[in-house]
Give the backbone structure.
Amino acid sequence: MEGGEETLVLNKLAAWGLTGEGIYFYNYAANTVEFYSFATHRITQIAKTEKPPYRSLAVSPDGRWILLDQVDLNTGKIMVVENFRW
């Protein structure tokens, strides 16, 4: 199986999902979920969000559902444990 010449489609993607029709990705500059179509070679805005994803974006194989993970509250605790044995 042979392919064609490589072409850069999108650069610096941190959160993205792939389907047979294209690539869904998060645009951090605009806080939007966007879609790059393999057929038209165009980018379309899908949704605008208040916060960026924490780590990832997932899309269902048929492109009907998108999942973004977000952090609403990030806290931590430091505890002292006495008589700890390794």
Observations:
- Residues 11-86 form one domain.
- The CA atoms of residues 71 and 77 lie 17 Å apart.
- The radius of gyration is 19 Å.
